[in-house]
Each structure stands twice: as C-alpha cells, then as structure tokens.
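Q: Could you predict the 3D structure of Trehalose 6-phosphate phosphatase?
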Amino acid sequence: MTLPPLSPDAALFLDFDGCLVDIAPRPDAVRVTGALRDRLARLHDRQGGAVALISGRDVADLRGHLPDFPGVVAGSHGSELSLRAGHVQTLHHAEFDAAALHADLRALAAPHPALLVEEKPHGGALHYRAAPELEPEVRRIMQDLAARNPHLMLQPAKMALELRPAGVGKDSALAHLMTLEPFHGRLPVFAGDDTTDEPAMAEAQSRGGMAIKIGEGATAAAHRLPDPAALALWLDRSLT
Ligand SMILES: [Mg+2]
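A: Sure. Here are the predicted structure tokens for Trehalose 6-phosphate phosphatase:
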C-alpha cells in the first residue's frame, strides 16, 4: 500500500531507536543529528504540537538525547509521561524496589562480561548484542527475575530482554495522549520498528489512523518503510 503524505491534522507518534535513529551497538551510542533535531522541531510546529515520542527508554534518557525537542515524550514503554522538558509523571502504580532489581540483574549478569546491563527507573534490560550465543542464558536470567517480580513483565526487544511494569505499554500511552490536547480529535499515526511497538500500531489503526513498520519482521501495520532514513525522507517530503 502506498504511503500517503502525513496530514497536518494527524497526531504523530514516533518510536526512537530503530525508527528515528539507527540502532547502535550500545543504547548510549546512538547518533542524533542536527537534521533530526530540526525535523522534529518543524514537525512539532506543523502538526500544531501533536507530536509525541514513545520509547522504551526512560524520559530523562530520551530528553537527554533530544534536549531541544519541544513536544511530548512517553518513556519506559508508556510508564512515564513528560508533557514538556522538566515535567515527568508516572502512569503506572507498581511499587517496587528498583535498586534491588538492578542489584539482582548485575549479580546474575556478572559471570558474562559481554552482557550489557541497562538500569531503568521502572525496570531493567539485559543486552546480548555483543554475544548473541548468550541469548538462552539471558532468557533464563530474565525469566527468573520476572518470576520473582510479578508486577513486572518480560519484554523481548532487539538483542535484549527487558523487564518493565505490567499493565502499561506504548498502546496505553497512545490512548492516554489521545485524550489530551492537542492530540484529541486527530487521527493517530504511529511509526515503530520493534515488537514493543505492535500494540500501539494496532491501537492507531483501530482508531482509523495509520501504522508504519520500520524494517523487516511480522507486523500489524498496513505500511512499511525499510529503515530510519526512509522514514526521515517521508517526513521531510511531508514538510515541504
Ligand atoms: Mg524502536
């Protein structure tokens, strides 16, 4: 199906890693260009402020990569919402000891120096990109931690497994934002690259909007673009 241009009346929801930026060897090594910062600022203006980034990263991390982004950021898979720089609220009610989870994660991963532990305020991730053969071990570790933390759920990601709060997701973040101005009453457009994006893609389409899958893999999205560069091109064409 041919991808129509982005309507200025749409509410635009964008994933970050693998969608706006190429996946990096380590999460902190992503490259944010001036062109991307400029594109996001212009989109924010054109869509009347109805542009939100919805990411698995926590809000502070994502805002750190995009310090001048004027729009909304939903972080930690929909667990956190930041309506503007300096603002953040929690959208889930799971109480848990993040420091204890992070300590368990570090201890279980310690025998495997190739694994990367990512500590998040609402969970944690174990990356095996540097050692794909450790995938079964990572699965064993994370399933063990999930069993010990029933308020968390196991979230597969690209070359990583993550624990995040149960009962929230990118779809619930999108649905919540659609109740707020300036998103309310617009048709949602969601672009993402990973399995964590699929519920939000289905949510956007169920509301009469549009979903765009970036890259390969099974998807509920009716549209597909090959990589972040192709998404950037489509967004830039919509801006001209
Ligand atoms: Mg992504």
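Q: Anything worth pointing out?
A: The two ends are 22 Å apart (CA to CA).
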